[in-house]
Write a structure and sequence with these properties.
four-stranded antiparallel sheet; single chain; Formiminotransferase-cyclodeaminase, Chain B, domain 1; 18 helices; 562 residues; seven-stranded mixed sheet; Four Helix Bundle (Hemerythrin (Met), subunit A); Alpha-Beta Plaits
């Protein structure tokens, strides 16, 4: 899975548009990074910048932001309502997809070390990147703000995690706090009421902080205090949730505005579901919800799985169908249309969407294959045939999952459909990757070959590209063969009326294995590494033999049931 992180640097400038633009412009100088949002605040004199991409590219963009901010912002002249101590005040990294918090924290440390060494800017790691418990909380790290840095930087207890322990550079740039933190979702739930008080009551039911405990009447009763004179609180139902009720004049309804501070602890669908229960108990109804900003793809897929499971329906359906189910189940289109391409982070990054083979319709794909261009060729077609094969097996599993009278077995078939869908996505990726492998070879042949060094580099590039062009069809073989387990299971126990579909799926998968095998063999012809050739041909032959044997086994079962 592609690794994606988000970066949300806050710079200490919210009034001078030219300075803000100078900083945000550097983000887009890094290839592969997408600038998602720039949110300046005049009163706070602070701008929140949001961009995403793969980790190395994102920390490069973050480095350039910190560098440029230190050049255009003079902290000795800064004033604003928000706490601050640096030109780039905070720079959190947020794991989005394919990456753990621990890995993200490692990138935060890498960024900080580079900022300290190359820019001479000091700073601290906080939250999940913190080097001590004392530095976990940003408020503690930033205590005293810019004005206290002269004393703080030379205090042994507050020696910077990176950069010099002196105020020289910090006089104008201040210091920077870098972290790894969880993704925060701003999420509003819509109610069929105009009452802010009732919306707040539900918010207090749900949010982690709950409500203040009172004697007698929960609204007007005397506040109960502990031995220290502090109000006693009744915790809400969900952790990592902040919430408040308000009235939205634009829509003429009350909403509950949530901040989900860790969607790994409390997800959107959990917050929505619990809000529905609390609203019903209070005589209200949830009409839908609203996502403010962006959300990771996985959050939407998890929501779809949650609601499908409640219906005892198969989870092995396409990603696009899951997005539709999540949108409808959460009512994300209640107030205005919900556009996945604008609200899901991963989709915002798909700049190449529409240029891939798998984005073509069937006629266009056929036309492209039949054209004079050598790609797409047999490798891509083998991968696509394999995709169709396992799609049929997945279809049989999904049909079986909701057959009347088989309700007690829906989860069994759902699990097979989920397996099939995973194979299908892998093979779809390989349709384009086989063509990309061919392009790599062509690019390698196009390298200069004037000097001896250039000739050596060109030869090595050709050999590396050729190996890749062998490995991709081998991966098609392996994946197509593995996918046959779905067709075998469906031939054995799937819906009898669809037995022929399981058989056709097996035939397609075996065809994909054999077709990809031909591409493995032909591409080994130009490779000098004979040990590699011997090894992969032996493994490819083994996969081919196993696929043909499994095809015969499946077809025997299919024929016996026709």
């Amino acid at each position: 899975m592609r690794q994606i992180i988000e970066c949300v640097p806050n710079i200490s400038e919210g009034r001078d548009e030219a300075k803000i633009k100078a900083v945000t412009d550097v983000v887009e100088t890094v290839e592969g990074v997408k600038l998602l949002d720039v949110d300046p605040g005049k009163a706070t004199n602070r701008t929140v910048i949001t961009f995403v991409g793969e980790p190395e590219q994102v920390i490069e963009a973050a480095f350039r932001v910190i560098q440029k901010a230190s050049e255009v912002i003079d902290m000795s002249k800064h004033s604003g309502e928000h706490p601050r101590f640096g030109a780039t005040d905070v720079c959190p990294l947020v794991p989005i997809a394919g990456i753990s918090m621990e890995e993200t924290a490692a990138y935060a440390h890498k960024l900080g070390e580079r900022v300290g060494k190359e820019l001479g800017i000091s700073g601290y790691f906080y939250e999940n990147a913190a080097t001590s418990d004392q530095r976990l909380n940003l408020a503690e790290v930033r205590k005293g703000e810019y004005e206290a840095l002269g004393q703080k930087l030379v205090d042994p207890d507050w020696k910077p995690d990176f950069g010099p322990a002196e105020f020289v550079k910090a006089r104008t740039s201040g210091v920077t706090a870098i972290s790894a933190r969880d993704f925060l979702v701003a999420y509003n739930v819509n109610l069929n009421t105009t009452s802010t008080r009732r919306a707040n009551a539900i918010a207090f039911d749900i949010r982690e902080g709950g409500r203040v405990k009172r004697e007698g009447d929960p609204i007007t009763g005397k506040v109960v205090e502990d031995e220290n004179g502090e109000p006693v609180r009744i915790p809400g139902k969900l952790k990592a949730v902040k919430g408040i009720g308000w009235y939205i004049e634009e829509y003429g309804i009350a909403q509950i505005s949530y901040n989900l501070t860790n969607i790994n602890i409390t997800s959107m669908h959990e917050a929505f579901d619990e809000t529905c229960k609390s609203a019903t108990e209070r005589g209200l109804r949830v009409t839908g919800s609203e996502l403010v900003g962006l959300v990771p793809l996985q959050a939407m897929l998890d929501a779809a799985d949650f609601f499908l499971t409640k219906q005892d329906r198969s989870l092995g359906i396409s990603e696009s169908e899951k997005i539709k189910i999540a949108v409808k189940s959460l009512g994300l289109d209640d107030l205005k249309p919900f556009n996945p391409q604008e609200n899901i982070i991963e989709y915002m990054l798909e700049d190449d969407k529409g240029s891939r083979l798998i984005d073509m319709d069937l006629v266009a794909f056929s036309d492209e294959t039949a054209s004079e261009s050598p790609a797409p060729g047999g490798g891509s077609i083998a991968a696509y045939v394999g995709t169709l094969g396992v799609a049929l097996g997945t279809m049989v599993a999904n049909l079986s999952a909701h057959k009347r009278g088989w309700d007690d077995k829906w989860e069994l078939y759902s699990n097979w459909a989920v397996k099939g869908e995973a194979y299908r996505k892998q093979l779809l990726h390989l349709v384009d990757e086989d063509t990309n492998a061919f392009t790599k070879i062509m690019d390698a042949f196009g390298l200069p070959k004037g000097s001896n060094e250039e000739k050596t580099a060109r030869t090595q590039a050709i050999q590396d590209a050729t190996k890749y062009a062998i490995e991709i069809p081998y991966k098609v073989m392996e994946t197509s063969f593995n996918s046959m387990e779905v067709m075998k299971a469906m031939a054995d126990m799937g819906l009898k009326a669809s037995i022929s579909d399981a058989g056709v799926g097996a035939l397609c998968a075996r065809t994909a294995v054999r077709g990809a095998y031909l591409n493995v063999k032909i591409n080994t012809g130009g490779l000098k590494d004979q040990a590699f050739v011997n090894d992969i041909l032996a493994r490819a032959q083994e996969v081919l033999d196993s696929a043909e044997a499994l095809e015969n086994e499946i077809m025997t079962v299919v024929e016996s049931k026709l």
